[in-house]
Amino acid sequence: MSDDAAFRPIPGDVLPRFAGVPTFMRLPHVPPDDPRAERVDIGLIGVPWDGGTTNRPGARHGPRQMRDLSTMMRNVHHVTGVQPFRAARCADMGDSPVNPIQLDDTLARVEAFVAALHAQAIKPLTAGGDHLITLPVMRAIADRARPLGMVHFDAHTDTWDRYFGGAQYTHGTPFRRAIEEGLLDPKRTIQIGIRGGLYNATDKEWGLAQGIRVVEIEEYFDLGPDRVAALARETVGEGPVYVSFDVDGLDPVYAPGTGTPEIGGYSTHEAQRMLRALRGLDIVGADVVEVSPPFDPSGTTALVGVTLMWEILCLMAERVGRDREGAS
Amino acid sequence: MSDDAAFRPIPGDVLPRFAGVPTFMRLPHVPPDDPRAERVDIGLIGVPWDGGTTNRPGARHGPRQMRDLSTMMRNVHHVTGVQPFRAARCADMGDSPVNPIQLDDTLARVEAFVAALHAQAIKPLTAGGDHLITLPVMRAIADRARPLGMVHFDAHTDTWDRYFGGAQYTHGTPFRRAIEEGLLDPKRTIQIGIRGGLYNATDKEWGLAQGIRVVEIEEYFDLGPDRVAALARETVGEGPVYVSFDVDGLDPVYAPGTGTPEIGGYSTHEAQRMLRALRGLDIVGADVVEVSPPFDPSGTTALVGVTLMWEILCLMAERVGRDREGAS
Amino acid sequence: MSDDAAFRPIPGDVLPRFAGVPTFMRLPHVPPDDPRAERVDIGLIGVPWDGGTTNRPGARHGPRQMRDLSTMMRNVHHVTGVQPFRAARCADMGDSPVNPIQLDDTLARVEAFVAALHAQAIKPLTAGGDHLITLPVMRAIADRARPLGMVHFDAHTDTWDRYFGGAQYTHGTPFRRAIEEGLLDPKRTIQIGIRGGLYNATDKEWGLAQGIRVVEIEEYFDLGPDRVAALARETVGEGPVYVSFDVDGLDPVYAPGTGTPEIGGYSTHEAQRMLRALRGLDIVGADVVEVSPPFDPSGTTALVGVTLMWEILCLMAERVGRDREGAS
Amino acid sequence: MSDDAAFRPIPGDVLPRFAGVPTFMRLPHVPPDDPRAERVDIGLIGVPWDGGTTNRPGARHGPRQMRDLSTMMRNVHHVTGVQPFRAARCADMGDSPVNPIQLDDTLARVEAFVAALHAQAIKPLTAGGDHLITLPVMRAIADRARPLGMVHFDAHTDTWDRYFGGAQYTHGTPFRRAIEEGLLDPKRTIQIGIRGGLYNATDKEWGLAQGIRVVEIEEYFDLGPDRVAALARETVGEGPVYVSFDVDGLDPVYAPGTGTPEIGGYSTHEAQRMLRALRGLDIVGADVVEVSPPFDPSGTTALVGVTLMWEILCLMAERVGRDREGAS
Amino acid sequence: MSDDAAFRPIPGDVLPRFAGVPTFMRLPHVPPDDPRAERVDIGLIGVPWDGGTTNRPGARHGPRQMRDLSTMMRNVHHVTGVQPFRAARCADMGDSPVNPIQLDDTLARVEAFVAALHAQAIKPLTAGGDHLITLPVMRAIADRARPLGMVHFDAHTDTWDRYFGGAQYTHGTPFRRAIEEGLLDPKRTIQIGIRGGLYNATDKEWGLAQGIRVVEIEEYFDLGPDRVAALARETVGEGPVYVSFDVDGLDPVYAPGTGTPEIGGYSTHEAQRMLRALRGLDIVGADVVEVSPPFDPSGTTALVGVTLMWEILCLMAERVGRDREGAS
Amino acid sequence: MSDDAAFRPIPGDVLPRFAGVPTFMRLPHVPPDDPRAERVDIGLIGVPWDGGTTNRPGARHGPRQMRDLSTMMRNVHHVTGVQPFRAARCADMGDSPVNPIQLDDTLARVEAFVAALHAQAIKPLTAGGDHLITLPVMRAIADRARPLGMVHFDAHTDTWDRYFGGAQYTHGTPFRRAIEEGLLDPKRTIQIGIRGGLYNATDKEWGLAQGIRVVEIEEYFDLGPDRVAALARETVGEGPVYVSFDVDGLDPVYAPGTGTPEIGGYSTHEAQRMLRALRGLDIVGADVVEVSPPFDPSGTTALVGVTLMWEILCLMAERVGRDREGAS
Predict the structure, then answer these.
(1) What is the nearest CA distance from B25 to chain D, expressed in angstroms?
(2) Residues from chain C contacting residue B67 (CB–CB below 8 Å)
(3) CA distance F168 to chain A (A)
(4) Which DSSP string do the residues of A90-117 spell out, in sequence order?
(5) For the complex shown, is ipTM > 0.90?
(6) Which residues have a Cβ under 8 Å from the Cβ of C234 and sit 6 or more positions away?
(7) 3+ Cβ–Cβ pairs closer than 8 Å linking A and B
(8) Quick one: CATH architecture of E21-327?
(9) Does domain B5-327 have CATH number 3.40.50.720?
(10) Domain ranges of chain D
(11) pLDDT tens-digit profile of B262-311?
């Protein structure tokens, strides 16, 4: 237990949930250069950028709206009983610097920001941003000697190669790059919910050839969430794992506020069920991406996004707590 | 059969469904002091109040929007064949008086309004309002000698104790108060769909200790709607039953217009299935609450709410008709 | 004074304005066949129909939403001091029958409905519906021996002839028909706010040739509302007058919920100013048309529409009161 | 294979998907009188009309919004591998002429437009419009000697007889008329997803008496999509088939933008699953109807609608390709 | 000049305006108990409460959305050249505690919160909340020996007496109470933009009898903003002044997100013009109230609200700077 | 007169305005490589790109929505009587190629696209896109020997230098670059409506030093539209002129769908008035930019945008017609 009062959310009966400056889950705002930062276990951060988006932009506004809705989260996971803010020291560490009009500069800024956290042994839990932002995060935290496994929820594989006659960095390419760069172990990677028309008949080949376990949505519905979650555990095994949740993996009715919706996905309940089945994994980083507020001003999608962050946070915090107890 | 022409809806081929002053289900407007009131069996009413709401208000506008959408309801239940407006004398009896800025005064006004109906043997079917409005309704109709059973659809137990250092009446406390006051029999109470983060690890304890049968959403999905409905019948048994449907029991995609959405709930089809399984119970009152139009100006949530009212009305009317036939 | 308690709105401190079955301005609902009808001076009615609409339909939903928003109206005009519900007996007389898929049948139904009011000396104040609904209203109330004058607020003249190779009844033709039928006196007709691209260079000719005083928006802005209102009084003179307010006469920012918006119109304040300058005229009927809720679910346009109805009602009621006093 | 470069969509990496004049699926615009028309196999068309709508209009705007969203479709079906634009020559052939205010004239115009395509052996895949538009399409393409079978997805049977005391053509009557006129074979017709309150207890009788296989939503949920799809194949057998998909067959959360939503329907995934099971049938025409943009400006419903068109197009194109290969 | 780097906003070219935890105008978050607080000159605060609202609630969400939009503000006033963050030390001091369900408790909490600032000589610039929140702010800062003058922008006088048969504290009564309590000097009070129907013919009398200068909207339009602003200066004279801006003083097209819109108000440009004419006054506190996000999820109203806060901040900061210079 | 039937819009009484593939103003779609292109006088094009946007993206979707709404335009200007489709040969020439993730590549693609039109003496009338798109258009059409004058409607000068420590191409810099490159003559440039907080006290200096005539909004309101338009004519004089209309020059109530709204602008009527005063100028190119549909799904802003395009088109076509007549 690391029940540290400096890292606790503002209680809802002290200040109502709609009140106050909205940090992630009402946690204290601890920028990376704050003296308290060195004690943080899990850093909730935003990467407000959508410069890798080839169709409908807007995910740059995701962290702001997700912070707003995150104030509806509470303290105890109702199924697992995990109390993340007691199990680990959590903080809102602000947003990474980004450059809205320059892609390369942004990749460098994000990597540097997350690397600074990583240097202090802070695990990042990130609100995107489009899916390209996962690449610089992985660059900052992956150990090439022991590449990351990944549980990847998405409608798209994001393993395309080039776009528009050359561009190698878009929100459709991060995992191809991550594998090429040795950050991500394709054989410990599972992608869940893949669907939607293809550009070319060969779109699927590269990823499968690398050994990625692709669970297309049809297979998903045949197996059901419990068996798919078991497959996920089996695939990623024991090493360090990254969890990346693109909200377009959900059916668009659950996440209308996103750039590339594909009809026919899974439900939030099913997503929760799969996430909870990942208890105990060594999750060294995670993100929820592609929440695009201009396409859902109501905040419904952001509420879904932050509730999934809450589910992942409980996984991460429980493991942090266990590791600390084991170490002590 | 009580096929009384004075209590029939305006047919859609006389006046199109979008036309006319919108009463509940196009029924005649029969205020409690109208001479026709004494012949009414089931009174559809509104309680337009949200002063018990601790987060996002708006449910005070629920009855207005639900009346509007209710004009899309028709005459015959397509599965059970029940014709509620022939089986029982139904009327829109208007809205209860409320006081938008004073909680205690409102509780008194609502209780008095419903008590006047109860004195004429009119069963209330209520459109809320936030969930606190169920408390004064129960005060008006419950027989403390034979407390009510309840089938309660909700994401939250609404059995918290105090709020904000003292307040004992909020939309999170009605059923604690009702049990304490002897209106509600916890052992004949079932709560279906409970979920969402907890404030404290002990939040669940009081209700379980009273004997409430709590079906959390995880158990719900494991059992499925048919078995849960069977559990509900078993729990409430033979006595008088109240049905209380908070639309946040549904997944938020079905009811975005509500104050405290929790992702991962059941569908409207499943809700319909559970409600239909309650045929024959002695439902002495019912409500559909927490429809909050400002959070769903499209009216989708209100349409869901009134269709659930329609399902419940068919249950109530069928029983009324049967009781009358049995009595005659 | 005809301060008749049977025709008074429900006060806002008895039942809050968001509560209750929404009739126009919270007046009693007095259908034409109600015994109280014969005492009514001014009947507020809806004509929920848009079958004359050649572009974006939706005005059939206008009366419903306008009733909803009309509950925000109060009792005393803050500038003129008129108290319409004391000066005249007013009631919500419901919606006219209409046929959503048959134009001719609808014209007949509306005419018959309004004629029944007219036979009881009730002046209609109508919420549309598209602008074609003014034609059957005029047929019901106009005295061909003494045709109506008209103050017409609109972006369009609505004096086109035929549409689509023959159709003579659309929402672009009512006033051509009304003049041809001898219901409307073009020389006592003024149209205020006309603008927007033309189909043909000759579009304006017919109306001008009849003697209609057309105030295009450019002239309107050069003269200002006070001088235009003076022109209107001068044009209609002393006889019976009809006031027809198409909300697209306003700039679309004030009335986005309409079928044929034209940018660059007048403001609501200016409209109020012009309407108030019509005090004392013998307004025998009036309408506010083309409020289309599907294009403005927020209700802003409907609020504008009903506030304009309130302004017109004060004009009509003051004159009714004065005439009654004069007669007594 | 009919891989004809003249009938290929604009690739997304030549012009981004949000760019360009929006034709259906970015196909070339080939009006019926274009010389290229005679080579077209499948014509994607719009019928922008809602004059048969008895409640909430707006479907006339469907084709416009569906074209917009259809630019997100791609080239290869990710499950079946079908490449429709290689298997068949497809084109956007524009919108049928319609008359917004005259029903009979519209029925004639649509029939003539589609008959002209049919004369060139072009199979129509239509975006509605309300459901009445299916009737003139069937009149244009059905061979009375060998009437059409139909797989019909809908919440309503659309086999009512008359409306409003006489009207025989509304969006609630097309299939009664089609059966009476010998266009549609009721014994080869299946209706999937029927639900919602009835006007009269006898509403279901006529269709069942004709031999239509009606799968009400309750039976649907008991059987599941795979068995229902098998039933559909069995029912329509080997002859020519029409597929008509009213988006209100889906649960309203998937298709809020429609005129007559009924809660408790199937999901888009389930609809996709059923459609894919129809591979190989001789689909001679199809439509997706009742997308009503004013009730869903976000375009979510239109995206669902065009993705279902994509699913059906793959079925049609695969069969066209196979027939051509068989013939060659 | 008090160009203190500790109280400067985050520049937009360091972190884009859509990024970061949203404090008011990107200022540092300095809670009242932060050691830096004692150096603050002007405290931007929120009072997220709408428990005094008699019609449409939602203003409790105002401060959150206003913080979000306030990040679009910049550093230099483009007309006056004032640089508020150099002229005075400004900070976001968070939200006042409130109690969403208890009115009296809230009045006490807000007064205590603001009194603590006042004790440190911090001038409050407040984002509401409904208009009742001005009362406890005035209680905290007014010197009864030298009551406040007020420039009050509003559609309503908010000088009603009781509501609902007794309630003396609602958002319609704050200035009656403030005058009765000796906080506010009616003879130094001007109200600009008053309009809308009255409940009773005597509604205006009390305020006028106290000596308030009421500029109804008709007088406003006759005089124009420059002369009205001159009247305002003349009315409030030399003593301490409070500026209270209810966004419903604006025409609803500028501020649709509010609880009690009244058509026919002034524009934002005119409001800016009037505010700028108040340069040099001794503004000891100010607020912008009644921004209700549920009625405008787009944030347009909040942007208006915070831009008016910016205008007022420039007035206050310029005077603070001048006073400091004078003192030094 | 160049009344060429090949370049006429589809009439609204042949196909209703909501029907058909939406090209700009229902004109024929004539891509640059179409043989008809060489006869075009004025090419309506889209540049769907927002990669220069530093805050809220979305303008890439502008041309699509503007095409949709443009189908409501008609044939004859109601004030000037100009018939643009008779005075000049107009066509929708499609969208320029763009690269959503690479700024430099986009600048090159747009310049090449417009240069190809320019080579055929086609004058571009462009729908943006963000304001950076004006730069490559100017590069394509400006004659450095005789630089362009410009009438520029905007809230911002767009003459900033660098952004984010170096970036020289953003939507805040196009006119600085255009002046530096000799494309634009600052002494023949007028900017109308400038307002909003500044980043730095020196923001205004560069432009004024170049000799740009900056009409800040305060001066605008003091002078009024007629005198400002006269100033504009005087400033640009006789040479070639570019008209660039950023919709954020308008008050945000007229154009909520834009990325950087600034409250307190002019109205659409005033904009129309100013544009009409530019009759006769030698407008060699024009654009309407910064319409951002995700921030206004209702299409209101796009309707405003295309109506302004219509106003400009009438100016351009009248001059083309006159020049042709003069030449013949």
Answers:
(1) 12
(2) 21-22
(3) 10
(4) EEEEEEPP--TT-HHHHHHHHHHHHHHH
(5) yes
(6) none
(7) yes
(8) 3-Layer(aba) Sandwich (3.40)
(9) no
(10) 5-327
(11) 999 999 999 999 999 999 999 999 999 999 999 999 999 999 999 999 99
